[in-house]
Write a structure and sequence with these properties.
CATH topology of the largest domain: Rossmann fold
Number of helices: 8
Order of helices and strands: HHEHEHHHEHEH
Strand content: 5-15%
Shape: globular
Largest sheet: 4 strands, parallel
CATH class of the largest domain: Alpha Beta
Helix content: 40-55%
Strand order of the largest sheet: 1-2-3-4
CATH superfamily of the largest domain: Alpha/Beta hydrolase fold, catalytic domain
Number of domains: 2
Structural class: alpha/beta
CATH architecture of the largest domain: 3-Layer(aba) Sandwich
Number of strands: 4
Radius of gyration: 17 Å
């Protein structure tokens, strides 16, 4: 992965970056570690980094950017959940059986519903279904961050057919919240089909923004 954490349409890179942000946030979120939060993150030396995130990863990226703005150069938020708006009720209702009694079949059915009209990678679909059966999984949730307090450049990429979010409403709210931000709706994409859907178009927006 490049030092600046410039992820393109490479899903592994997105996951790695989001995981790094999650680990940093975990260190600084416990009461016992707050006095040494700066010391814990000081291991990351050098210039500011670009932080991308998809879905919950975007929420983590925003939380981290608000916690340590001196370490964040730019943000890329890909169909961010719980940042500018909550989940659509229909999405949560569809997810409920999977959350209550997770299984590979239910995960596959939920994914097929959300990604209707797209063609996600077969291997990734199998991985998604397998992940639903990991024992001792925990739901992680938190308060909505004050995105209006962000001062760095932000690129918000929304999935046109996302069933997790209402793309046009979230786009309007993101534009009002972030005057310095750029908001783009990616045609044909759904929440879970990103960043695999239309990688060339996604790449063009990312490279133009990150330079």
């Amino acid at each position: 992965m490049a030092p600046q954490c410039r992820c393109q349409a490479d899903r592994a890179c997105w996951v790695e970056c989001s995981t790094a942000v999650r680990k940093l946030r975990t260190v600084s979120s416990s009461p016992a570690s707050k006095p040494s939060a700066t010391a814990n993150t000081s291991a990351i030396t050098g210039p500011k980094k670009d932080h991308p995130g998809h879905s919950y990863g975007a929420w983590l990226a925003v939380k981290y950017a608000l916690h340590a703005p001196q370490r964040v150069s730019r943000l890329v938020l890909l169909d961010p959940t719980q940042v500018f708006a909550g989940f659509r009720p229909g999405y949560l209702l569809r997810a409920l059986p999977l959350l209550i009694r997770p299984s590979r079949a239910r995960a596959a059915a939920f994914l097929a519903w959300e990604t209707t009209g797209t063609s996600p990678d077969d291997a990734w679909q199998r991985l998604y279904a397998l992940a639903a059966t990991v024992p001792d999984r925990k739901l992680i949730a938190g308060s909505r961050p004050r995105a209006a307090d962000l001062r760095m450049s932000v690129l918000v990429l929304l999935a046109e057919h996302s069933r997790a979010l209402h793309a046009s409403k979230v786009a309007d709210r993101a534009r009002r919240t972030l005057p310095q931000g750029k908001v783009v709706i990616l045609p044909g994409a759904t929440h879970h089909s990103l960043p695999l859907t239309a990688p060339q178009q996604l790449n063009e927006h990312l490279t133009a923004f990150l330079g």
